Amino acid sequence: MELQWLEDFLEIAATRNFSTAATARNISQPAFSRRIKSLENWIGADLIDRSTYPVQLTRAGTMFLPGCQRLVREAYRLRTDCRNVAGESSAMLTFTSLHTLAMYFFPKWIGSPLISRLPLRTSMHAADFLESIDHLCSGQCDFAITYVHPDGPPVLEGGPFESLQIGKDRLILVSGTDDSGRPLFDIDGPETTEIPYLAYSWSDGYIGKLATLIQSRWRRPLNLSTVYQSGLADGLKHMAVAGRGVAWLPQICVAEAMRQGRLAQIGGQQMSLELEIRIFRRAGSGSHDSDALWQHLKQCAALPQYKSSFEAAIDAA
């Protein structure tokens, strides 16, 4: 038995597609299939019904799933506890977040005066939304940082999870600019005029849905024609700067390009959405260091200057 076999099973249970699951696990599909088969041989029963598309769990697989989730979670928690008992002066706190937040938010947040006073050692796993949530659910990290909006898809509302707000951002519609700094595209033009659209790929299950939410609130249907897709906000940003279309992007991601005049916001506030940045953890299962950080964050949340720093950060962006 190998721990990676259990993690492979959780991936195929989530995606129901061998190719997608293998890509997420960063191995070839044949190697992934062999590892699933090795797990089934060890269990002594078929866990995956390969005769359907998408694949389904067998009755044995359905029974095995919750126990597998607990085993993986407990294995990582036990490793953390053992490292703490071994006497490390400060355990490594593990985070996962969206790529945008890992690049543009986390460094400033972890280095802010209220947080940097703690003697923290941290590691970051940047991923798309679904992988970030799965990472936390399977016990592979201490904390997950992601965007949340009340009208967006629910984020870990069920189960033993708790969260705190640690920042704010805005999702805004941007366009590249011409030599005089004017937007290349205008959503207020004739309805028959197609606007090239830089869209989030299916793997980003959250920001893409929020962009759809904004469109539904516009006074008339937008004539957007998708010309490019990416799961990375930075990828969409560079395409927008190159003049390839319009995109909804987190303000924290495009702030510098807007200050330089390479991007411009279009559509005004009606085409934007304010987002909370929240940190999640599994309640009651943390190490001493992760509990200390959580209690510190809860104390900071009561300070007026802490919440005012959200506004300052978004205004600076």
From TrEMBL:
Residues 1-58 form the HTH lysR-type domain. Keywords: DNA-binding, Transcription, Transcription regulation. It comes from the Bacteria. The keyword DNA-binding applies. The keyword Transcription applies. Pfam families: HTH_1, LysR_substrate. InterPro entries: LysR_HTH_N (IPR000847), LysR_subst-bd (IPR005119), WH-like_DNA-bd_sf (IPR036388), WH_DNA-bd_sf (IPR036390). One of its GO terms (molecular function) is transcription cis-regulatory region binding. Belongs to the LysR transcriptional regulatory family. PANTHER family: HTH-TYPE TRANSCRIPTIONAL REGULATOR, HTH-TYPE TRANSCRIPTIONAL REGULATOR YJIE. This is LysR family transcriptional regulator. It comes from Ensifer oleiphilus.
